[in-house]
Specification:
Length: about 350
C-alpha cells in the first residue's frame, strides 16, 4: 500500500508506492517504442473498455452511441483510499502518513492517434469540460488538499501508453512547490494589492518579445526563466484563481488555445515529448485550527498551464543544484513559434 514520507532536511514529501513497481512499463526492454502499440492491443481504444477498470465518468459521443471522453481509475495508482490519514512521527524527526488520495486517467478520445494537435474544437471542449467536472468532484472530498491535472506525451515524458490520455492525482497535502508559489503570490499582494501573475502577464504583453499568442481570452508565452527549450505557459487574461470557474466562452477559448499551441510545437519540432501541467488553486476546504488558511486565494493567485517539451535531459548538475541549463533563449523560442503557420481550429 502506498504511503507519504517526509524527511528531516527539507519540506518535500515523497510518495512511496510499491504497487507501481509492477507496471508493465517498468519491465520494458530498452528500445521498445510506444509506436509498437496498436488499437487491437490498446486498452484505451473504443471496443476494449473491458480491459480497463470501471469508468468513473464519460462524455458521450456526438451521435450518442458511444463515448468521446472516458475517465477511469488508474490501474497502478500512486495513491489509494484509506479509512484515515494515519499521520505520525517516525524516529522523532521523520513524518509519515497513509498514501491517501486518488489517481485517475482521462482517456481523451476513442481514436488511438488523435492527439491535441489533430483535434477539432468540439472534442477539445469535451476534454476541457471533463477536466473541470473531475476536479470539481474530487475537491468535494475534504481530505484532498490539492488536485493535480497533468499529461505525459511521449515515452521520454513518462508516458507508458501511446493512446492520448492525461491524468489526475488528488493528494492530502499541498505540494511544497505549489505552497512556495502561493506564499510568494500572497506576499506580493499584501505589499501591492495586485495579483503578481496579472502583473507578469501585463509586462509580457507590453514587451512582446516572449509572447507566442494573445487570442481567445488566453495569453501564451515563453517564460523569462524557462527551464527547457520551448517551455510555454498559458494564462487566462481574466484574473481567476480557480480553473473550474471558467465561463463557457473561456472553456472554448482554452480548448482552441491548447490545440493551437500543440500544433505550433508539432509543426516546428515534430512529435516532441512534453509534459502538460495545470497549476490551479488548492482545495479551499476549511482546515482545522487554520480558519484563514489560503483565504486570500481569490485575490492573489492566478491559475495557469505549463507545457514543458522534453528536449534536454535533467542530469547531475540540475539534481545537485536546482539550476537548469536551457540552451534556447525564450525570446528566440517565442519568435520561432510565432512564425509557425498552423491550420485554423475548426
Amino acid at each position: 500500500m502506498p504511503e507519504l514520507r517526509r524527511g528531516a532536511t527539507n519540506h518535500r514529501w515523497v510518495i512511496v508506492a510499491p504497487e507501481r513497481g509492477r507496471r508493465p512499463s517498468d519491465f520494458e526492454q530498452r528500445g521498445t517504442e510506444l509506436n509498437d502499440q496498436v488499437p487491437d492491443n490498446c486498452p484505451f481504444c473504443a471496443g476494449n473498455e473491458d480491459q480497463t477498470p470501471s469508468e468513473l465518468y464519460r462524455s458521450p459521443s456526438p451521435d450518442g452511441t458511444g463515448w468521446a471522453v472516458r475517465v477511469i481509475p488508474n490501474k497502478f495508482p500512486a495513491l489509494q483510499t484509506y479509512p484515515d490519514l494515519g499521520r505520525e512521527s517516525v524516529d522523532g524527526f521523520y513524518d509519515r502518513m497513509h498514501g491517501v488520495g486518488t489517481h485517475e486517467v482521462v482517456i481523451e478520445t476513442p481514436d488511438h492517434c488523435s492527439e491535441f494537435p489533430a483535434l477539432d474544437e468540439a472534442q477539445g471542449l469535451r476534454i476541457v469540460d471533463t477536466y473541470i467536472q473531475r476536479l470539481k468532484t474530487l475537491m468535494e472530498n475534504p481530505w484532498f488538499r490539492y488536485v493535480l491535472l497533468f499529461k505525459n506525451h511521449g515515452k521520454e515524458a513518462g508516458a507508458s501508453l501511446l493512446h492520448p490520455h492525461s491524468q489526475i492525482i488528488a493528494t492530502p497535502i499541498v505540494p511544497q512547490e505549489v505552497r512556495d508559489s502561493l506564499n510568494i503570490a500572497k506576499a506580493y499582494y499584501e505589499q501591492k494589492e495586485r495579483c503578481l501573475f496579472c502583473d507578469i502577464m501585463l509586462a509580457e504583453l507590453r514587451g512582446g518579445e516572449r509572447i507566442v499568442e494573445d487570442a481567445n481570452g488566453f495569453v501564451t508565452w515563453a517564460p523569462y526563466d524557462a527551464r527547457f527549450p520551448f517551455e510555454l505557459v498559458i494564462y487566462p487574461k481574466r484574473h481567476s484563481h480557480d480553473f473550474t470557474t471558467m465561463t463557457a466562452e473561456e472553456r472554448v477559448g482554452l480548448a482552441r488555445t491548447l490545440i493551437r499551441t500543440t500544433r505550433r510545437l508539432k509543426t516546428l519540432l515534430g512529435n516532441v515529448p512534453y509534459n502538460f501541467v495545470l497549476k490551479t488553486t488548492p482545495n479551499p476546504v476549511a482546515r482545522p485550527g487554520k480558519p484563514g488558511y489560503w483565504s486570500t486565494l481569490p485575490y492573489d493567485y492566478h491559475w495557469r498551464i505549463a507545457i514543458l517539451p522534453r528536449l534536454t535531459r535533467v542530469a547531475g548538475f540540475e539534481w545537485g543544484t536546482g539550476f537548469y541549463i536551457n540552451p534556447m533563449p525564450p525570446e528566440q523560442a517565442a519568435a520561432y513559434l510565432r512564425d509557425v503557420e498552423i491550420s485554423e481550429v475548426s
